[in-house]
Every structure is written in structure tokens, then in C-alpha cells.
Amino acid sequence: MEKAKSRLPARKLLRMGKRLVLLVAFLFGVAYLKYVAEFSSSTWYTARVIPNDGCSSACRSARGYKFSVKPDTEPFAYIVGSEFGTKTINPGDCVCVHAVVPPKTDGNAGTANSTLYRPIPGYPADSIMLDLVLRTTRDENGNEDALYKGSHVTVPVDLYAKSDDRDPTRAHIYQGTARLYDPGVYDVDARLDYRNGEWNAEPHQDSVPYGETRMKTTIPSNEFVLSQVHVKLDVKHPTYLKRHQNLPLCTRGDEAGRWIPEANLPSTWQKWQYMFPAEDGRVWLPYHCRMRRISHPEFTLYMSARYSSIHWYGDSNSRRTLRPFLSSGRWCHKKSQLSRIDCLCNDAPKDLFPDEWYSNMPVPHWYRIHSDGVRSSEIYSDLRNLPVDPTDERPIVEKDPIREDYLPDYVPPGYSLRNDYFDLYYLFTRGTLDMQGSFWDRDITRRNISQYREASLVVVQIVTWDAAFGNWTWFTKQVVRMADRLKSVYPRARFIYRSGPFWCCRMSDDPEKKYDRLRFQAFDRLARKTFVKKLSAQVWDVTESHRCRSPEMKRYSENMPCKSAHSRAEVIHLDNQILMNMLVNG
After folding, report:
1. Are 410 and 549 part of one and the same domain?
2. Distance (Å, rounded) from C-alpha 258 to C-alpha 548?
3. Residue 505 to residues 6, 128, 199, 239: CA-CA distances in angstroms?
4. Are residues 211 and 291 in the same domain?
5. In the chain, what's the furthest Cα-to-Cα distance?
6. Displacement of CA 549 from its chain's centroid (Å)
7. Are residues 209 and 341 in the same domain?
8. Domain count of the fold of the chain
9. What is the pTM of this model?
10. Could you tell me if residue 26 is inside a domain?
11. pLDDT digits (tens, 9 = 90+) for 225-251
């Protein structure tokens, strides 16, 4: 009896403990449901699509400023300071940026549009192009680093919603991070393109006219709100421009970098040690590796030994990309030619292929454009009469004055200019869409592909037509089907995924084309993620370098006579150099 009594307190304690656990679980469940309900109208929390740049801690450690945001005030953006309000960081450090879009009260337009247009899951409702721009390299003593003078190094910032951005009656707050390397003072350049999901018009919806609003970046004085950030000068840091030639050669096609005026480069650098400059005289220089200038004969000879047969899937953007390879780099290679309509943006198929090739080819529409067969075509006859660039035939065997070694001698002395060293087969596809005579699902089969020389390298470029005419939900399924099909058809080939085009600061002249910067970005990121995961594809990124152009140069495209998604010839030559470096150096 006494034993039973002695156990009673223990049983009571056990029951009380169980009740306490249940109570805690209940309270936790209530809190969780409240939390889920609070964010259920926003997709940012569970599905935000932001590349992992290793900078996420920058916003966690930063202290933002709680503004009292009134409706109809100007949207604004700012750099968030640390808990000490510091404005100076070391090269390679990260900064946190906030952007705020106040609600509008002009009738019910915003509310109506919020029900019509929805952002792609994981992307912000408001389209904001935000850059951190290097404005000056002067230090506190007034000294300026000549290497970066006038460079306007531009670092794009991807934003995601910090609060619910699906309610047009509330202020939308976004944040993002950036890693800064080059020394000097950076400020914010932010432009609001669209509000409330209007950037994501699906095929059944009308495109909303483009309208850019310059966001305010001068913020009331507060120790945690910065209009500028200063990156210290560290001449020993590996990304410092003077040390660039000490970096290894690039073997990837998706390296981050910046544009530097060619006139600023050290006098000890030889021209073959960096890619040729863009139309504004700036050179693309990655941060963590270096790209060299590769001639087309060198590339062709290398490819003949390593990848003697290439299958290439793409649309008219790829067709333009192939022109320099067909002409050994001589298409639109002179400044006097760059104002021609085909060098700017136009791309009629017969400008590249004879009519009989384009119209009378059996299905599927394959073009063997880089082989003996091309010698009999009218396009080759025209190209053969072009003057040869003397640098095309010069072997690259000069001694590297920085590394004191020799680059591989891919081009032997006496090498004569030829363009039939490797076979390149091109199939015109409209992304994952089967429309207007293009049927990838029908054409990409083992039976059809078996009639051509087995591919050692497969290049795939999609997205442009998908974003313009496709449905997002359809694309998410079809891009997986396409990747699976390619894997079964090419079990031994190496894959390269070419990113989608960069689109900025305008809308298409064709209202049926749903072109937009964020829409392109969403389609492209899903495609590259799928191809990397399923095919172990390497990414040939032709977008990042254009995102890093200065805000002024990004808007240069507005002056083009045709508003397609085609790149200018000088841009295509630079994009091709990235491909040539990733293949030859790797």
C-alpha cells in the first residue's frame, strides 16, 4: 500500500508532463498556422528563385530601417548598413540592398491588374532592374586608380520579396545581395519596369506597354541606410586588375566578371591575352579566371581533333551565332559593316543559307553548315572573296610575359585557312514548342539522328520562343521531356546549354511576343537547372555579361531599327569567344 502511495506523485508528474508537451505542441501548431496564413498569398517564402551566391548572411546581419511608407510616394532603393553603419568593405565582401515600391491609389487599376497578371512562382511581383555601379575610384586622399577610371563597373542585384508582394494595396519590400570586388565607391541605380505581375503576360493576355520609372536612391540620413558603399583598395587581392594575368585560363562559360575600358589595361598585356573589346571599347574580364583571344583557325583545328561532329539545336539566335563559324570570323567583323541591318539584328534565313538549302531540305530540317558540302554553296563563294584577317593565320605561340610560359601551339606554321575540319549540323527548333513547321518531339529521335554522323558534342539553345509564345506551366513539363529525350538519343555526347538572350528596357513591336527581362530570366533559369541536373550540361552563359553592362549601355538596344531578341554582330563575336575558351581551354 505504501509502495502504491509512493508511486502516485511520479504518475501525477508524468501526466502533467504529457499535458505540458501537448500544450506546447498545440501552441506551436497555432503559431505555425498563423505564420503560414500570413504568407500564403506570397510565393517568395517557399519558392523564391535566387541563385546561391554565398551572400545570404549579408542581409541577415544587416539592419534595415523601418520606413513609414505612404501611398503614391516615389519608389526607392538603398544599401543596408551593418549594425555599426559602416560604409567601407573589403574586396569580396557582400552588401545587402533593399527596394521599396509604395502602393498606388489611382482608381482600381492596380487591384484589377493584380487579378489578371500573376508573377511566375518564386519571382517578384514588381519588376525592378537594380545595379550597383562603380562611380569613382578616388580614395579619401583624392587619388584615383587609373585601372578602373571611367569603367563604371556594374554589378546586377537579383531581388526577392521581403514581405507579401501580392497585395497591391500594401508597400512591397524587396531585398537582394551582391558581392563587390573592384575598389571604389558604388551607388545604386534602380529602375521600376512593371508593377503587380504585369511583366508576366501569358499567351492569352495582352502585353502591358513598357514604362520605366527611375527609383529614388537619396534616402533621409540614417546610420543604417546608405546611398553608397566603398570597397577598399587591396593590390594583393587576386581579383585586383593588375593581377588578372596571374589567374588560370577559364574553362567554364558562366564566370562572373566586369567590363573594363581597353585603354585602362596595363601596357604589358598583349592583345591576344584578352578578348577583343565591345563596341564601347570595354573588355570583358572575369573575376576568377582569364579568357584569351582565340582565332577561328585555332578553334577549328582543336575541334577537328576533339569534337569532330557537333549537333546544334536552336532558333534564329543560334543561326546568327553560327555565322562567324561559317565565315571564319569574317561576318560583320569590320566597324564599317556594323551599321548593316544584318549586323544589327535582322536575320533572314537565306542570308545564311541558299534558298535550296532552306526550302528543299527533307524533314527534319538539318543543315550541314560546316563541312565540304558548304563549299558548293553560294554563301561560301561570297565569303571566300572576303579579305582574310591576318590574325586568323598567325600561330599563337608568343611567350606570356606574366606567367612566363607558352600557350599551346594549336595552329601550326603554314596553316592555310580552311573551314571544313569538323562537321556541324544545325536543326532549327522553336524551343519546346511545336509550331510553324518546327517539331522537336517528332524530329529528335534515335531513328532520325542515326542518319547523321554521331555527335560528340550537342549544343542546345531554347527559351526565346518559349518565353515569347509559350505558357509557363507547359514549359515546366516540356523542358524536362526534352532533356530526357536528348539523354536517350545522345547517351555518350557532351552537352552545352546556351542561355537565353538578354532583354532590356523595351517591349517587342509584335504584341503577340511576350518578351520581358524577368520572364526570359525565369524560363532560362529553369532550363539551365534542368539541363545541368539531367544531362550534366555545361552552361554557356551569354546573358551575364550583358546584365553587367552599364545602365546606359543596356539601353543602347533601344536604338536598334528592329525590335527582335537578336544580338548585334559584335556581341555575337564576344559570346562565341566565351564558347571557344570553355572548349579549348578545358
Report:
1. yes
2. 6
3. 81, 11, 12, 31
4. no
5. 114
6. 12
7. no
8. 2
9. 0.81
10. no
11. 788 899 999 999 999 999 999 999 999
